[in-house]
């Protein structure tokens, strides 16, 4: 299915039209129909009509989402999944026992769990490094098969120097996958810098409304398309047509949502950094962030995630999150509504406590997903909660 060529347009135009055009459908549908079919009639045994056999393998609604994400990330092809974890798992399925994966040590807890408790059982070797440290990229092991990083990372908002890490991976013959969930293709496009894969939990900013779970894997090299497709199809990790439809509907407003997320997050971060009860505020848009200059170089803006700590550790943080009224206490992120969580007992509970402390995830760390509400209301909510602790 061919989509309208929008490569000469700005991102805001491309995100509205990518992956689908009314001419793609005989009815002229402005949005792709939801093809809720499990199978397709064949013209003769072994002769599927227009190549469509079974919906796990081919589905028009899913193809529209995949094509849109590939276009926005500048990739050769895209694949979408039941979740972000399914996307990562499918990529790992293309590796073989004994392959070394060098990964950032500050990853989402579910990614740690998948790597350490499942994939390692099948013979993959995982080595964790400080991906924010430029020295890391001076001396990768020669047998590295895959580099895996998040930037900004979850939850500490560390940045991986993309060009440096990509060059380092390719120097030893490795591929590199970048989890772009926090940034989205609106803020950065790792494939343009040479990354081999981009990963998304499309549950988050891509879909943007906290009403659908999904994941995506976008590839730079057309030669990898058949291998990824084979493993996706064989493992059955595809998302449903309805989920693809919801995700594509959310994707259309990505630019306008991200602009508001970023503006609100900057205002919240400025407020928190100046507040006497806050001991530390982490946000790439703050001059105090140790990688602020790198963020300005490789991101178009600084994202919608903010972290902070309070003196006294876990108990004041627990009191704070329970006192908030506009921010909802919940896992996940990237929806239009503002969320708050404590990574240690929530999203990163599967990471051993000693590992969390080693990489800087304190028990009292608070993570905010700043939504698109009024910035004044979000700040007022934080102010009243801070006054109670």
Task: Give the beta-strand count.
Answer: 14
> Remind me, CATH topology of the largest domain?
Aspartate Aminotransferase, domain 2
Could you report the average pLDDT, rounded to the nearest whole number? 96
Reading the helices and strands in chain order gives HEEHEHEHEEHEHEEHHHEHEHEEHEH
What Rg is obtained from the alpha carbons, in whole angstroms?
Answer: 21 Å
Query: Would you identify the CATH architecture of the largest domain?
Result: 3-Layer(aba) Sandwich
> Within the largest sheet, what's the order of strands?
3-9-8-7-6-4-5
CATH superfamily of the largest domain: Type I PLP-dependent aspartate aminotransferase-like (Major domain)
- Ranges where pLDDT stays below 50 over 5 or more residues in a row are none
Put simply, the count of helices is: 13
Helix content: 25-40%
* Largest sheet report: 7 strands, mixed
